[in-house]
Design a protein that fits this description.
single chain, 361 residues, mainly alpha, 16 helices, 73% helix, globular
Length: 361
Amino acid sequence: MKIKEFESLRGLMALVVVIHHWLSFMGISKGDLSKPLQLLTHGGYAVEIFIILSGFVIFYTLDNRSSTYLAFIRQRFFRLFPLYLFCLIISVFLIDFSIEVLNSFPWESMDNSDRLEKFNALQDAFYVYFISHILMLHGLLDSYFAWSSFVFLSPMWSLSLEWQFYLLAPMLFYFFTKATTVAFAAIITSILIGMAFNFGGKAWFFSYFSQFFVGMFSFFIWKYRLYIYNHQHINGKFILPFILGFIWLSTMHVPYAVWFIVLSAVLYNYSSDEEGYVETLISKALSLSFLLKLGEISYSVYLTHVLIAYPLFYILLSLGLDQNELVIFSLPLFVLLTVGVSYFTHRYIELPFCRLGRMKR
């Protein structure tokens, strides 16, 4: 069962990441935007929501499918790796071209300077970077090799994080559901140690454990929602969203705020067996067909859009467009091309390999 609000949220966050990177290529900073639009400069917020969604979805999957550890890892590998490898290989071939495009921008941009610095870092240890990317463990090397998580394609940093989570998720699910008190205490101690000592850097799993945990904990709220509702002295349909809202106010962190609002709407919608699905305003907004379609191809959108940016900007800059003209033409072209390419990579790379991963051995 797919929860449509979460599917649309995933698509919306992928679009936010695309716009965030467009802004950074264009040299548009936070100060150039009105207050509401300044959130678009925080692409990391969208990625954190992806991480929370991952915690929820993976625990939901583990709870509803009976499979061995190796079967689970195989399925997740075929979900993640084929498109990842395709984009990695293309990014390697585009390194020199990408450097040429970045040097051709007629305006200064700190983000573009950082991109050039990342490409320059490749010269020092190309094979270390490449092999660690093939293993999807490049996120563990940030403390030892500069820009390890970002050198080829910046969105790949979170995929190393995701892969680390997949490797640990079945064990975490077991400990949270079936472990003895001693075993549970041991895993909590290990988690706290991992969070206290950042061995890997930005893409170290424990650096984002709190986001994964919010997603995992939310799954248990979802799973036991009817029990929670049916054991309130007052109408639980109304009290639980307020509880989640209080958590949001306590955190004052945008990704948690967005998640708790959407989760509250989902819990309200599926509040009882008798009433069934009751649609809220938030759910109606997240039921737009284009958002649902975007959610389906969100992994492709997230991973391919930077690859599309370099040839697009090369063409537009070669036409002699100035920065203002680029602002007008580049964003719609960037989004449309990304969605178009993502449709094909989703259909011809993602889906066939996902089916292969689900085949019984």
